[in-house]
Design a protein that fits this description.
heterodimer; A: about 280 residues; alpha/beta; Elongation Factor Tu (Ef-tu), domain 3; five-stranded antiparallel sheet; globular; B: about 270 residues; FAD/NAD(P)-binding domain; 2 domains; four-stranded antiparallel sheet; binds flavin-adenine dinucleotide; binds FE2/S2 (inorganic) cluster
Amino acid sequence: MYRIVRKKPLNATVTQMEIEAPLVAKKAKPGQFIILRVDEDGERIPLTVAGTNPEEGTVKIIFQIVGGTTEKLNHKQEGEYLQDFAGPLGVATHTDGIKKVCIVGGGVGCAIAMPVAQEFHRLGAAVTSIIGFRSKDIVILEDEFKACSDRLFVMTDDGSYARQGNVTVPLKEMLEAGETFDMIITIGPLIMMKFVTLAAKPFNIPVTVSMNPIMIDGTGMCGGCRLTLNQDGKRVTKFACVDGPDFNGYEVDFDEAMSRNRMYMDFEKHAYEKACNLLAKGEN
Amino acid sequence: METLKALGVDVETNVIIGKTLTIDELFEMGYEAVFIGSGAGLPRFMNIPGEAYKGVYSANEFLTRSNLMKAYREDPDTPIMKGGKVAVVGGGNVAMDAARTALRLGAEKVYIIYRRSMEELPARAEEVEHAKEEGIEFHLLCNPTEILGYNNPDDPRDPKNGFVTGIRAVRMELGEPDESGRRRPVVIEGSEFEMDVDAVIMAIGTSPNPLIKSTTKGLEVTKWGGIIVNEDGLTSREGVYAGGDAVTGAATVISAMGAGKVAAKGIDEYLSSK
Ligand SMILES: Cc1cc2nc3c(=O)[nH]c(=O)nc-3n(C[C@H](O)[C@H](O)[C@H](O)COP(=O)(O)OP(=O)(O)OC[C@H]3O[C@@H](n4cnc5c(N)ncnc54)[C@H](O)[C@@H]3O)c2cc1C
Ligand SMILES: Cc1cc2nc3c(=O)[nH]c(=O)nc-3n(C[C@H](O)[C@H](O)[C@H](O)COP(=O)(O)OP(=O)(O)OC[C@H]3O[C@@H](n4cnc5c(N)ncnc54)[C@H](O)[C@@H]3O)c2cc1C
Ligand code: FES
């Protein structure tokens, strides 16, 4: 069992938790993730390691409440326990040889992008960050990004905070003005990562995308997380949990990935309502 | 499990060797011998077009969702596709398990698609008998060439887009025996046909997970990834023993238990001689 040491809401639907998991805290690198189960009967869900404190033996996770399991997780309080917490899984983000990087995060993807930005900053690379949100009330981690970025652009879709527009707007402006990067790393909704990749293409800048398919075991045993890469005219199947989650944006078949992520849409809606009903009952 | 714990065995869950800890770290922590019994869990796919459609599962994923994650329940947390017509590709015990599980989850029709004949079918005879009794249809000497899916060109938001609608296959006949001694299936020209199905479960075999091998220096494996051991279960690394599917490839519970006993004896002799 894994104790919740600290819990803090970042906005109405995003929560940060620090979990006691000393072995994971010792090993995890930016870009890796864990798989947890809230309780014995729970679904297994992957969440990125948002930070570690090896001395204290804790691992930070930041999650958005989007469905049944994240709703259940958010109902757990400090001092309570999670059933399972396994990791670190996946391949850490490659940082070798990258001196100038642009990190593009969208929504809760910013939580996944943050430790990557911090790592590049720690390694002495020049970090430009672009973080985008739907509106003002869901902006998260702005201070954290400020602290680890040489340049930061905050965007909202509706213009209710900072600059209006999506994340590709400042990216395109920079690229058109002649800026270059050794790497653009983008983490967020699939559609956003697809458009960031398209925006970078005319300028020939490498793009790394962080894929988030539905996962089960996270160790290569089920194939549920598979996605297709187009490599030299060939279609190649990869397992995101062991070969990723980072992939070359130019190779990923985004349309297929988007379709696969919607596989259980009806089921998920029902599970969410069920969790809300159950948890609401518990509170009365 | 309870018996083992009563004997004084400590069980640590959520430790993935190769990720959470490595074999070398186990030695650093003071363990003097290690036994690897990590099975042969990596699923194979056919690498035919359409395997990414929604509704195509590896048997591992399908059985894990259903069994370990309790999707068989009335109102589970874990989703799975239920009902409709299900094709299971493969002829082993795993294929029989998947087919019978699909039936219990409410499939209206379950087909087994196997590329050789009943004679070569590797599943145990009782399994096959039970499957037949339960109404599972066997399509023997058939091999899938493509999985078909729904795509509405006029509406990219059509919720049915990307789901499996069928399977395209060819008929086979048996030719000369291959290296396994079984007669090799050969495609019959022009025998292509289609079947309507809503889900496809691939049960065409598994191989050992490379995770432990790739994180343990000096651990030798075969071409297909099986850990190499001597007659005492000892690997190429001192103090590291292995057995079961991780060594033999997908086999049986009985052979895995046997390998465990052999290695236990080997480890006992090794530790007593130290
Ligand atoms: C490698 C990886 C890292 C991730 N890191 C984070 C993170 O740091 N913070 C965060 O908020 N989210 C992260 N996610 C997404 C997170 O796992 C899902 O939001 C969560 O599983 C939703 O579960 P649910 O039951 O609450 O919602 P559901 O109602 O079940 O699903 C809502 C959405 O989540 C997706 N989803 C459902 N089940 C899974 C699953 N088992 N695995 C992956 N996606 C699923 C679905 O496609 C759906 O779009 C990550 C996903 C992956 C693959
Ligand atoms: C669906 C199905 C039906 C079957 N039916 C039959 C049957 O009817 N009769 C029969 O005799 N046999 C049957 N078998 C085969 C039998 O289950 C296996 O031969 C047997 O379980 C092998 O035992 P094992 O201990 O080698 O591996 P497993 O039982 O596979 O155990 C391996 C364990 O190691 C864990 N593991 C893997 N990698 C790591 C890692 N890096 N770190 C930590 N843990 C790890 C896995 O999670 C797993 O728990 C069937 C198999 C399947 C899949
Ligand atoms: S999550 Fe099962 S293989 Fe990747």
